[in-house]
Design a protein that fits this description.
Blueprint: E1 2-4, H1 11-25, E2 31-35, H2 42-52, E3 56-61, H3 67-77, E4 82-85, H4 97-105, E5 110-117, H5 122-138, E6 147-154, H6 155-162, H7 171-177, E7 182-188, H8 201-215, H9 218-244, H10 254-286, E8 293-297
């Protein structure tokens, strides 16, 4: 399945390469494109391809619900005994899929791609590496480093993922949480075939926060420990002043001002971290659907626009 965003001029080439690869690797296949509120005619392009190739299916959301929602919709629509997830930009080469499928046939339930090299800027590569290192330190669950959503999964993993009801989804974390036999294959990530990526810094930041706050309570633990240390230091300093009979002499406002800023920052950080958890609880309590489908093509009983 393929989450699609503004890829009208990329999808025909992606379809061509996927068809060549899959026809040589499996006896039958389907290609599901989930158009996540694209601003171009991505759905019309996929719909046209579906008329010529009955193995191609498409659905379009009523608005942009996000990459993880698009992947979720594709997994729920997939019917195969194996399901591959690949982005629409051809940065993840379809030619890696046969090696992944071979590993599934060996008995693995998840085979994920490990990005050996990224053709991105130095800043992007640094931020990605820093995120995976921070996530690994915060999360008790063993998550593979430098592994994205690009993978092939067995049917029982897909069923497990579809049974998970949460809305703020970090699918590569849920995939690891599900367990079973998992392994990775290294590959060199390419460059986007055309257009700009639909993933902005803000979207990457939200995905990073979903990853941390969905799988770790350590931020709360660390804030509690910082608060305890500050309280202990304050108590010890107050006891020292009381026992020594000294009163602090303030030579100026600078030290007091810095102390107030420091403690205010710690308090706001603590409230912000708690707020992140509360916001996610609020989202789950509302029980809204993860996405709304506007129209489909290639499925039985297609929905018109």
């Amino acid at each position: 399945m393929i989450p699609v965003y503004n890829s009208a001029n990329i999808f025909p080439e992606l379809h061509r390469r996927l068809t060549v690869v899959l026809e040589g690797a499996v006896s039958s296949h389907e290609i599901i494109g989930v158009v996540d509120g694209a601003r171009d005619n991505s759905f019309d392009v996929i719909q046209g391809i579906a008329k010529a190739d009955c193995r191609v299916k498409a659905m379009e959301f009523s608005r942009n619900f996000g990459h993880q929602a698009a992947v979720t919709a594709g997994l729920e629509a997939a019917a195969g005994s194996m399901v591959a997830v690949i982005d629409d930009d051809l940065e993840d080469p379809p030619e890696v899929l046969p090696a992944m499928i071979s590993k599934i046939r060996e008995g693995f339930d998840v085979v994920y791609g490990i990005r050996r090299k990224r053709k991105r800027s130095l800043l992007h590569r640094f931020l990605f590496k820093a995120f995976y290192r921070v996530l690994g330190a915060l999360v008790d669950l063993k998550l593979p480093g430098d592994a994205g959503d690009f993978c092939v999964m067995s049917g029982r993993i897909v069923r497990a993922l579809n049974s998970m009801p949460e809305n703020n989804r970090y699918l590569r974390g849920l995939r690891a949480w599900a367990g079973f036999e998992q392994t990775g294959i290294e590959y060199v990530r390419g460059t986007r075939l055309a257009n700009k990526s639909g993933y902005s810094f803000a979207k990457y930041s939200k995905l990073a926060m979903d990853a941390i706050f969905s799988f770790s309570y350590k931020p709360l633990e660390y804030v509690s420990k910082i608060g305890a240390l500050i309280a202990l230091f304050s108590f010890a300093f107050g006891l020292y002043l009381f026992c020594s009979g000294r009163t602090p002499v303030a030579p100026g406002w600078a030290s007091l001002f810095v102390a107030i800023l420091f403690f205010s920052g710690v308090q706001l950080l603590s409230v912000g971290i708690i707020g992140q958890y509360l916001a996610r609880i609020y989202d789950e309590i509302k029980q809204r659907p993860k996405y709304i489908v506007k129209r489909t093509a290639g499925f039985d009983g297609d929905r018109p626009s």
